[in-house]
């Protein structure tokens, strides 16, 4: 049986999501806790958004396959008398109880049964991130420093929004990321909106059907370079169209980034969506 885990974490003290020998990772801590809870040696999670070292999450999703017997024990006695919503919260509470012993910076919100066609990675319709930063005109706040990048120059919010708008739609984002071997960097950027937060920071809401490695932090870095006057709006567009990595802007620090939401289709469309996502995207421009 397949279960879906909805979770959040403070990424500060993790070497990213993916399990790595000798390093503390979100996957490693979760699978260790699941092994204790389910009394299995190697539980294996599949994740919706593979975050890098230092990146946070409020809306991470993963899935896990378990036996009916394991699931029944996870729900506790009288599981058959509880609603699925109650069981989802109860399973999460039990898992959090194990995590508190060594990984209290992870919080599991829900553990619920889903169709076998559900795939946390390939079944996603879109992913939404937020990037927070302060420029040198903002008042520094130590209480939010763990998830807000600090910059040494002043930014123009209106100029940054104009630059962000130039990236919307279906584009080749090779300038801003490194595609996997045999894949393309073609992505559909659905939203890139900047706002001033209540605590005086700037926040970017970035949503796409999918992202390639470092794409969010690189696009934010390029837009920040425009907002600070380091590069012009015209040069920014030229860099986008060049489809080549550039030293004209920097990739932003990991700690300002948070995975906020992963959206999935209705149950009847899960298998079709996973098959569509696995298909290789064609390059743009007939290349």
UniProtKB/TrEMBL annotation:
Claim: Cytoplasm is one of the keywords in the record: no
Catalytic activity: uridine(38/39/40) in tRNA = pseudouridine(38/39/40) in tRNA
MF GO annotations: hydrolase activity; tRNA pseudouridine(38-40) synthase activity
Residue ranges annotated for the Pseudouridine synthase I TruA alpha/beta domain, each copy included: 163-265
EC number: 5.4.99.12
InterPro entries on file: PsdUridine_synth_cat_dom_sf, PsdUridine_synth_TruA, PsdUridine_synth_TruA_a/b_dom, PsdUridine_synth_TruA_C, TruA/RsuA/RluB/E/F_N
Keyword terms, alphabetized: Hydrolase, Isomerase, tRNA processing
Gene3D superfamilies attached to this UniProt entry: Pseudouridine synthase I, catalytic domain, C-terminal subdomain, Pseudouridine synthase I, catalytic domain, N-terminal subdomain
Protein name: tRNA pseudouridine synthase A
Organism this protein belongs to: Leucobacter chromiireducens subsp. chromiireducens
Gene that encodes it: truA
């Amino acid at each position: 049986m397949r279960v879906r885990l909805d979770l959040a974490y403070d990424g500060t003290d993790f070497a990213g999501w993916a399990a790595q020998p000798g390093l503390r990772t979100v996957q490693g801590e979760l699978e260790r806790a699941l092994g204790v809870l389910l009394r299995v040696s190697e539980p294996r999670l599949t994740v919706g958004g593979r975050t890098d070292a230092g990146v946070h999450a409020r809306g991470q999703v993963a899935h896990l396959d378990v036996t009916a017997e394991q699931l029944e024990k996870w729900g506790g006695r009288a599981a058959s008398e509880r609603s699925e919503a109650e069981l989802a919260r109860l399973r999460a509470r039990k898992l959090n109880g194990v995590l508190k012993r060594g990984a209290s910076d992870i919080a599991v919100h829900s553990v619920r049964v889903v169709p076998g066609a559900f795939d946390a990675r390939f079944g996603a319709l879109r992913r939404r991130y937020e990037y927070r930063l302060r420029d040198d005109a903002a008042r520094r706040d130590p209480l939010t420093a763990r998830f807000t990048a600090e910059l040494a120059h002043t930014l123009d919010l209106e100029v940054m929004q104009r630059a962000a708008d130039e990236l919307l739609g279906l584009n080749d984002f090779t300038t801003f990321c490194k595609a996997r071997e045999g894949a393309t960097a073609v992505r559909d950027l659905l939203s890139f909106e900047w706002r001033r937060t209540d605590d005086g920071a700037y926040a970017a809401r970035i949503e796409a059907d999918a992202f390639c490695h470092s794409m969010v932090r690189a696009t934010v870095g390029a837009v920040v370079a425009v907002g600070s006057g380091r590069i012009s709006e015209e040069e920014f567009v030229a860099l986008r169209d060049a489809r080549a990595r550039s030293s004209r802007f920097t990739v932003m620090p990991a700690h300002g980034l948070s995975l906020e939401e992963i959206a999935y289709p209705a149950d009847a469309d899960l298998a079709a969506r996973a098959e569509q996502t696995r298909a290789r995207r064609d390059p743009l421009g007939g290349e």
